[in-house]
Each structure stands twice: as C-alpha cells, then as structure tokens.
UniProtKB/TrEMBL annotation, chains A, B:
Entry keyword annotation includes rRNA-binding: no
Highest rank taxon of the organism: Bacteria
EC assignment: 2.10.1.1
Pfam families, per database record: MoCF_biosynth, MoeA_C, MoeA_N
Family: Belongs to the MoeA family.
Keyword Amino-acid biosynthesis carried by entry: no
Location of the MoaB/Mog domain: 180-318
GO biological process, one term: Mo-molybdopterin cofactor biosynthetic process
Molecular-function annotations in GO: metal ion binding; molybdopterin molybdotransferase activity
Name of the protein in question: Molybdopterin molybdenumtransferase
Amino acid sequence: MISVEEASRLVRATARPLPSETIALTAATGRVLQQPLYADRDFPPFNRVAMDGIALSFAAIAAGQTDFPIEATQLAGTAPQPLRNALAAIEIMTGAMLPPGTDVVVRYEDLEFHEANGQRIARVQVPPPAAGHNIHHQAADRQQGDLLLPAGTRLGPAEIAVAATVGAAVVPVARPLRVAVVSTGDELVELTQTPLPHQIRRSNAYMLRAALLEAGAEGEIFHFNDDQQTLRQGLPPLLAGFDALVLSGGVSKGQADFLPEILREVGVTQIFHEVQQRPGKPFWFGQQAGGAVVFALPGNPVSTFVNFYQYVRPWLRQCQQPQAVLPQLMAVLAASFAFKPPMTHFLPVRLEASPHGHLLAHPQPAGGSGDLASLLQCDGFLRLPPEQELFKAGDAFPLIRFREW
Amino acid sequence: MISVEEASRLVRATARPLPSETIALTAATGRVLQQPLYADRDFPPFNRVAMDGIALSFAAIAAGQTDFPIEATQLAGTAPQPLRNALAAIEIMTGAMLPPGTDVVVRYEDLEFHEANGQRIARVQVPPPAAGHNIHHQAADRQQGDLLLPAGTRLGPAEIAVAATVGAAVVPVARPLRVAVVSTGDELVELTQTPLPHQIRRSNAYMLRAALLEAGAEGEIFHFNDDQQTLRQGLPPLLAGFDALVLSGGVSKGQADFLPEILREVGVTQIFHEVQQRPGKPFWFGQQAGGAVVFALPGNPVSTFVNFYQYVRPWLRQCQQPQAVLPQLMAVLAASFAFKPPMTHFLPVRLEASPHGHLLAHPQPAGGSGDLASLLQCDGFLRLPPEQELFKAGDAFPLIRFREW
C-alpha cells in the first residue's frame, strides 16, 4: 500500500496543460491566462497629476514666490496646455496630464485662493518639498513592453483591471476542465424519488459536482447500477468525452465492487489501488493511455470528500496552472489528539482565526466516514502524518481547507 | 472625518436581507439558503453496514463459535432478508441494511473462507469486540426532524450533499445582489479604443465587476462623463433598478468632482464623506430613502480596490447572510513598518504560510494609490490602526485578503 505523499505525486504526474480558448475579458474572472500580457504603454502613460490643485514650476517656489495667478484650468481627459508664464500656475485635476512648463503640483489643502483685479490667484500655504511632488511620473510603475501577467496567471480582479488597461478586450484562457461524475451503487435513488427503507438518495455526485464548480471545473453527473455490463458499456464514452472521471463507490472489497476490473477491461491502466490513509483507503487511480484519468473514490461520503480535496482538486489546479506552486497552509491543533494506526489520518477540524495570526484547528467529533452531516461543522482536515501517534495541542500540521470565510 | 470602524459600522447598518428565489439544487452552489432544511429521515435511515464482510449474531461469537455457514448474500440496495439460523451468517456489503437477527459485522480482512460439503463457510480470525461493531446505527448522526441547515447557510459542497440526501431538488435561496458599477472621468476611454496621449482605458469598472462576481453578486457596468446633466439623468434609473451603485472617481476636491452634489439632488442622502484612512480618504457613502445604497469610491485604482474590500464586500455579505459573524483573519507582519499620519493605513502585503501555522504578511513596495500594477504582487492589505506609528515585525494585524490560494 502506498503513502499519501507517493499517491499525491503519482496523481499530479498525470496532469496535462489544457488547450486555449479566447473569451471576452468580462467572462474571464477566475480563468487562467494562456499567453503573457505586456504593457502597451508606460504605467502611467504620462506624467499624471496625483492630486487636485495647481501645477506650476518649482523654480518659482524655490525663489520664494507664494502667489500664483491661475492661467488656465485643466481637467483630466483634456489635452494639456503649456504654462505660458513661468511665474503663473494652471489649476489642475487628478488624472490630468502634467502641463509642459510645470514640474510640481500643490494640492488644494495646501492652498488659499483670492482674487485681485479680476484675476484668480492661488497662495501657497505649504510649499512642496521638491520638484515632482504630487506627480505620478510616466513609467514609474511599469515601462512599455514590460511583462505584466505571465501565462498561467489566474485572472482575479487586479489582473482583470490590468488587462483592461492594456486593452485586452478578449483573452486566451485555459478551457474549463470537463469532469464526469459517476455514482455507482444499487442502494442509491434519485434526488426526486422517495427511497425505500433500504435505499438512500445519491448525494456524493452532487457534492462532487459542487466541489468541481468551486474549483473552476465543469462536472456532469452520471449514474450506473452495480452491473458489469452496464459499466462496460457506459464508461468508454465518458473516457472519450471528458478529461477525468470521478467515481464514487465500488472500489472496496465487496462482491459488487468490480469497478477496478471493469476499468482495466475498458483500457484504463491502474496506477495505484489503496492508500495508507484513513478515511479513504480503498482509493483507486488510473489513466487511459494518453487519455482521461480516473479517480475511483470510496463511496462513504467523508472518504469521498477527503479524497476529492487531497487528490482531485490539486490535480485540477495542476492542469489549470502547471507552473503554479501553491503554498501549503498550516494550522495549529487546538487540542491534543491520538491516532495510532500507521496511516495518514485526515482529521476533520473547525477553524478559528487567533488574534496572534494563527489558524487554530479544533478537532470535530464525527461518526466515522459515513457521517456526512459532520462535515457541516467542519472547515477542513488536518493531515496528520503516519509516523506519529500523539498529536499535541500547539503543534502545526498541513491543512486542507474546503470552506473559505 | 470619521474613523474606519465608524464608517464600517454605518455601511453595515444599511444592509438589508434579500428576497428569495427558488432554484434547482444543481444551480445553488455558493448561494445562501433562505429556509431551514430538516432531516426527512434518520441519518443513517437504517442500521447501515459499514464494512464488506459477514453479518451475524454476536451471541454466537461470545459463545466461542468461529465457523459460520453463509446462509445468503445481501448487496447494498436490496431489501434485507432475516437470518434464519442464529448460528449462521449473511455475507453482506457496505451500505446494506443490517439483516434482522444479526447485530455485528465482521469485515473480510478478519475472515477466511472455505467450503465443506458444498457449503461456503466463513471462519472468524479476529473476533469483533462487541455487538454493534462495523455498524453505522440508525439515527447515530442525526434524527428525523433535526435541523440540518439553518436559513442563512451558504451552500458549499457539504451542504449540497446534505440537501441532496433529504431530497431538496429545488431550494429557496437569496437572489443575487444586483450592483451597478459606474465609472466617471473624461480621461477614460473604452477597452477597445486606442487612448490619446492624455487618456487611459477604464479599468476600475472591470476590476469592480470581477470582484463583485467573486463575492457572489452581479455587476453591470455603466459609464458617465463628468457632466452634471448626464449624471442627473443617468443615476435615477440605476437607483431604481439596482440594490447598490458602486461609483469610482468624482468624489475628491477637484472642480469636476460634483458627484456628491448630484447624488443629493437625485435623492441620495449622504451618510458620510471622507474617512480617516489612506489610501481611499475621499470615500462618499449614502442611501436613497429605503432604497439603493451608493458607494462613491475615489478613482485611484488602489483606493478603489481597498474601499471595495473594506466596505463593499462586507456589505454584500451582510445582505447575503445577515446572521453570519465572519471571523477576522489576522496576519503577522514580516518586517517592521512605519506610518505616521493619524489615520488607518491599508498596507499592501504578500502572504506566506509559515510552517508554524501563521500567515506572514510581507509589505510590498507600491508607487502610491495610482499604482494598479502593484496589486499583482499582493494578496491583501493589513489594516494598521491610526493610534500607532511604528508597526513591529512579529505583531499581528487584521488582514483583508483579496486573493485565495
């Protein structure tokens, strides 16, 4: 039986970059850029006035002048008019281009205005310390041609704004991953059906589809009964049409658990079966030569859940952003906890933000891997290593978070 | 000028709960439930077999019996058949209903099988410690009628699974917030246009729309030039048609910044103008009597960004989940930092996950509130309080995070 680390490595090794599609920037939030984006102009593209006030020549200030007649007014978005009289000033607004002949801006807060002979005059109360004050200089942040967003960048609000600035009305992004979610199990009935006493409604498939959506992938739900012929016929079209299959149920030791055998028959090569972990040990993983990968997860809901977040989600991210190195969040155990079997234990925890900047992880009581409802009180799992038996309060362990605040 | 705390309180006080709409569970990921969901059956609904193996009577084990003839096989999803002979066993699969007459399950791993006179016999190698072993008992997790999901719950993957289990094929959820994003400023041209030397493309509106989407709201973009008549006519239909308006630009001291005046004219009452913070001081906030709220944010991109995450996003969440108390994440300053003005400072930071369970916040150099590109290197802002001037490495401060990993 292999370790969690080895299983994770083998899963990640099957990730492949996704093909591109070009979409409108307004549809691209959360998507991953496929080509680098460069600055088409300097950032800022001109000496940009950073405060409302007056623009003038610092030489006049340095010479002790305090009163400046207003020669003109210049709003943002208008072509700049040069200062004609070096001892005068132009009233100017944030976002405007600095007028030729000026090199400093004094903000309204540091000015007083009066009129003399019908001429509006600004008196400088607090002189600026140097030329360039209150000016956001051309190319101060980025130069034309600079790389702004490398390929592989996830487009959040800041990246969308930068793309808008350079006029990227459409962007090449990775197409969404397409995942078939397959539930198996004769005890499972549809959501809309009333189950017989020995039946339950399927829930894992809906959980997996929701988790895929949150991870930026598309999930489509299929159901097969525990019947070899049905699976033998049903799986090949899914292998051909999807990037990955995520199955739940059918991989433990039971008589109806012939899924690994059928998967081999339809051309999926086993990469591993069973991982040294609890819950979720019977996890089976394989890949069709050069094609879809298959995550066959055990059907107990907590096992399905843990395996999704430990293996499937990192695989999705690796496909979406092959270059990204995602940081491993750690959390501090809030109460000591013992787990003796020599396997990695995924401990359900509720998180608390400590005033000292820690994430505190409170172990949550759970009724075993069948206790779906226990997940409602949890924010994630701590991944407790197999070589330890006692996990002490105050120690930090890797956190798998499935709920953000 | 009011403090950040007071401004935040005044903003949150205007939040109103959203009307309901009923949608398919498959469309409800990330939405907020509007009515409580109860258990329609016990969880589990029957004594559920938790391991593949055999079901038998513990009395026989206690009496020292080790060999059990297999009377029948029962898969998950079939009606249970009672054990006829109390000294025999039923071969049974995970997920099946425990057969009447049995009270314990021995898993395959603890059994060996052989045949005698054509009869399949299971030999118990590791006897179970007590009756009830490997059985997930009816109602162990939840009882019929128990509250599973209170109104106001955000529907993540675990909640979607629980809703599926109780047959909630459609669910009442809060309708999405509708927000009009309004950019102003004559210097701004459309994404698809080539700007003149003194113009720039609009980016704040796209940033705000993306940030709204990430927060689960709908954003629609409008643009008005800095012209009083245009604004006077353009704003009332937006106030009538949206829950909130988020404007950027037009609220500082400049001659073209008549937005507060126009807003008053069209019936929006000012709640505050200017907050003791940097960046983002000129923030104006108001509300139409019983109607839309108006966030008029300063137009410098970093100011817009900070104000969105400090004020707009919490307001959205308060409308979506009025009962939720969201924890305040804290992060540890990785390098000392000085900021003297007596105002709250939003310090751009890059986050690092420490091996000890801290979030470390590295201050990022930025070219001021106009430096949009500096946000690309940041994950959030630390909110540094006004009464301090020196912020020491190792101290923890409230974190506003705008990028998840």
